Amino acid sequence: MTRIQHSKKKQSIPGFGLTMGLSTLYLSLLVLIPLSLVFIYSARLGWTAFWNDVTDPRVIASYKLSFLTAFSAALVNLVFGLLFAWVLSRYTFPLKRIVDGLVDLPFALPTAVAGITLTTLYSEKGWIGKWLPFDVSFTPIGITLALIFVGLPFVVRMVQPVLQNFEHEVEEASASLGATSFQTFRRVIFPQLLPAALSGFSLAFARSLGEYGSVVFIAGNMPFKTEIAPLMIMTKLEQFDYPAATAIAVVMLVISFALILLINLIQWWSRIRYASH
Amino acid sequence: MSIEINHVSKAFDSFQILNDINLTIPTGELVALLGPSGSGKTSLLRIVAGLEQPDNGQIVFHGQDLTNAHIKERQVGFVFQHYALFQNMTVFNNIAYGLRVRPRKIRPSRAEIKAKVDKLLRLVRLEPFGKRYPSQLSGGQRQRVALARALAIEPKILLLDEPFGALDAKVRKELRYWLRELHESVKVTSIFVTHDQEEAFEVADRVVIIQNGKIEQVGTPEQVYNHPANPFVYDFIGSANKFEGKIINGTFIDGSFETEAPIDSNIESAGLGFVRPYHFVIEKDRSGKYSIPVQIKHIHAVGPTVHLEVERSDSHNVLNIEINWEEFSLLNLKKDQTIHIKPKKVQIFAV
Amino acid sequence: MESTVQPNLPRQAFAARHSLKENVVRWSLITVVLLFFFGFLIIPLVSIFFEAFKQGVSVYLSSIVEADALSAIRLTLFVTLIVVPINAVFGILFAWVITKYSFRGKNLLITLIDLPFSVSPVIGGLIFILLFGQHSSLGRWLISHNINIVFNVPGIVLATLFVTFPFISRELIPLMQSQGTVSEEASILLGASAWQTFIHVTLPNIKWALFYGIILCNARAIGEFGAVSVVSGHIRGMTNTMPLQIENLYNEYQFVAAFAIASIMSLLAILTMVIKVVLENFIKKQTR
Questions:
Q1: Which of A34, A182, B73, B194 sits 20 to 30 Å CA-CA off C8?
Q2: Are B213 and B261 in a shared domain?
């Protein structure tokens, strides 16, 4: 409180106390207090019960699946996100405006709609599924595909502005010093894209870990095989096993917080490294 | 309204921006805060406006302590370096803004506001531009709108932060002249911040030189220019040649160069001597110990004044000399020639 | 690559060779992007409408005007109309606090505001069950006074508020940071209050970004599935939003009806994207 008092004195625009108070009140009521309840509630379970809940083999299998599919999807999105950002900011081609406009569609399209659509497309009789020699629906591949769809815009939207603001002179300087285009990309452009690309990757990964709507339809939800961690929470809730649901939620929240920390570290690191920009 | 700044200090983290500043500005005066960038002059201006709080000290307007008073109670007009015009409003609405946001009881009527804004538009010579938006104006025009907007609230004090800093040289000169005239007609106590000494000397009644958060000298432009209080001011105002040496028994010695030092002391001390580039007499042969042998390294002879870059034969330090064209052609100077130069006026400071 | 070091190669030929290679790279990259774009975005989008109209226009129309579908649409609109204005007001408030004042812990506050982005929507629903459900003393007290929050509309509103919490401030903060505080300071110095400053100076400078944020928040509020699914209790005609209705229909193998509702939601999503493209041009103008 003393800190806020101190800073209140030096604000040139009035209204700090009121607006800050209202903001933190809303933040606390809607986000902080409810989220902390997850930890409080699971702390009351006792350590053994908590440990049993989170290390149940079926739950462990769901963490593994969630982690693996989310990581693969984020990796695919990293590659294609960089590609999209590069092509959209460097080249002109037919349909460019439409591509640029619709890249964000997965943000706006309801996840349930994405879920049933992808399931239909990749089913054995679906437009795409019937041409594929392997099963997609009800397999980890299907889950990964859904997560790729959901996470595509993250890397694109983080990297694109960096590329657009990139000084052309720097590239020309590199070329004038005899570097090939690929060398210029690898040694000059890529290092500067890296923080944005990694932030986008982490955001896509975090989103994919928690994603539910687009996955449940295509996953088939077979125990030990295609059950993702958010679905485990849902299943436990439907069985009125609130302690187990909360315990799984704690593990997922800890992973999310770790990812947020990672993203902040990346941004902090890039600020120091490219402070002059 | 007079301004008193008493013992004002301000630190940001561990960096001391302002250190015990004391300054009194009588009613109606136009004062320039002059200093290199990072000297703390803008912070001082923002503290006077109430945009920032000092850690210590007082701001007193006409005998009233306003250190903790809110910006609103101070009634200052403030002109920002980059104008800070409201982009979404026309020129007219920008100027009228300060009147329209007043509480209903003291708000002028629509007609009064219009009359006042029209008058201000005339004052800043922008009558035809009332309906334009800031983005449709040139830099100089925007700056004048910013001034009119600040004057509309009839401020007791006018503060200008680098008012001409973002303009090109020609417009700057015109606006300087115009600001001087404007001040004559409104007579509001004004402080303006600048890093341009020419601007400060031309416009201000008094100049305050600031460096590293401290006031180095306060005085009229003539006082500051002709009688710099210390080596920093001498070096900062105009160009100067610096001599580093010592003072012994009333004499300043730097290598083979000697001159009388008006400092009465028997103790040997380090000293600094300054000579303006145009305060040298050029001799082909040495006339005594007060002249310095130098070699001409470069001659820049465009315009009525000729600039010579010479190297001292003893210390190899480079000096800059200015002589008029007639003298130059009479002496028939050539590159690499060795000559002797004698300072006409030396300012000595004990360090 | 060898040719780049040969000094006697004519300049023009060198340039031509270079650009030929670059053209190959350029067009193969563009092709890959377009293929991915069509495979991953366009085909799914087209197939939604294909499935919806599979049995003709009349079946399509009758699935939309069906009673449960209509009540789902009504509930979704109702929830959105509550959620978006609340989060718009607080989104502006967050952005204002973060960009117009200096205080310690600002980065922590930004991180906390963004928190719901990184938390699974399922957890976003779970927390309100823990807070207001049978298992908490607050929940039991409320239920005993006949105030049902979870498995009811208020729970859906809360879960949607949580999930869409950061959307608007996220859009506003970068813009307002780039605009700085100088205009606001000028307004305060001219005697305006904080509120007058916000209305006359700040709001006109951020209106397009605000509109964009509202559009995105709106899209997510309409489409939220996971969080709402947890708190809704799936009572048909009572607490089913459009996405939940899609799930029900799909699980009952009423594919045409499911895709009919999905098609409406897709149209909204496309509309959102169109508005987004239009708005981005306006926002760029205000960034300067």
A1: A182
A2: no
pLDDT one-digit tens code per residue, B168-214:
888 888 888 888 888 988 889 999 999 988 899 999 999 999 999 99
Say which of C123, C194, C243 has its CB closest to residue A110: C243
Indicate the residue of B46, B53, B71 with minimum beta-carbon distance to A9: B53
Give the minimum alpha-carbon distance from A83 to chain C in angstroms, rounded to a whole number: 7
Terminal-to-terminal C-alpha distance of chain B:
39
Percent of chain B clearing pLDDT 70 (strictly above): 99
pLDDT band at C202 (very low <50, low <70, confident <90, very high): very high
Instruction: Please tell me the CATH code under which domain C55-287 is placed.
Output: 1.10.3720.10
- What pLDDT, on the 0 to 100 scale, is given for residue A170? 80
Give Cβ neighbours of residue B173 (< 8 Å, ≥ 6 apart): none
- CATH code at B275? 2.40.50.140
Amino acid at residue number A137 = S
Identify all chain A residues contacting C20, using CB atoms and an 8 Å cutoff: none
> How far A61 CA sits from the closest chain B CA (Å)?
51
| Chain center to CA of C32 | 27
- State the chains in contact with B (3 or more Cβ–Cβ pairs under 8 Å): A, C
Q: Pick the last residue of a domain from B174, B202, B235.
A: B235
Q: Is C93–A23 a contact, with Cβ atoms under 8 angstroms apart?
A: yes
DSSP reduced 3-state for C20: helix
State how far the alpha carbon of B165 is from the alpha carbons of B123, B199, C287, in Å.
22, 10, 23
B189 and B51 co-located in one domain: yes
Average pLDDT score over residue span B232-260? 85
- Of B10-14, B213-217, B251-255, C6-10, minimum mean pLDDT range: C6-10
Name the residue with tokens 């809607």. A30
Q: C281: buried, middle or exposed (CB in 10 Å: 19+, 13-18, 0-12)?
A: exposed
Domains, chain A = 46-272 (1.10.3720.10)
Task: Look up the CATH number of the domain holding residue B17.
Answer: 3.40.50.300
Q: Which residues in chain C have their CB less than 8 angstroms from residue B165's CB?
A: none
Please list the alpha-helical segments (H only) found in C101-202: 106-118, 121-132, 137-144, 153-163, 167-179, 182-189, 194-197
Residue B199 domain boundaries: 3-235
Interface test with A, best of C79, C96, C123, C261 (most A CBs within 10 A): C123
Domain identity same for B143 and B84: yes
In single-letter form, the type of residue at position A209 comes to L
Flag if C225 and A110 touch (Cβ within 8 Å): yes
Q: If DSSP states are collapsed to H, E and C, what string results for B57-124? A: EEEEECCEECCCCCHHHHCEEEECCCCCCCCCCCHHHHHHHHHHCCCHHHCCCHHHHHHHHHHHHHHC
User: Mean of the per-residue pLDDT values for chain C?
Assistant: 88
- Per-residue CA distances from A195 to A154, A155, A274, B9, B64 (Å): 13, 11, 10, 40, 54
Q: Does C5 touch chain B (CB under 8 A)?
A: no
Tell me, what amino acid is at B339?
Answer: I
Is A12 close to B70, i.e. CB distance below 8 A? no
User: Residue C104 in contact with residue A7, Cβ under 8 Å?
Assistant: yes
Between CA B142 and CA A121 the distance in angstroms is: 60
Q: Is the pLDDT of residue C9 over 80?
A: no
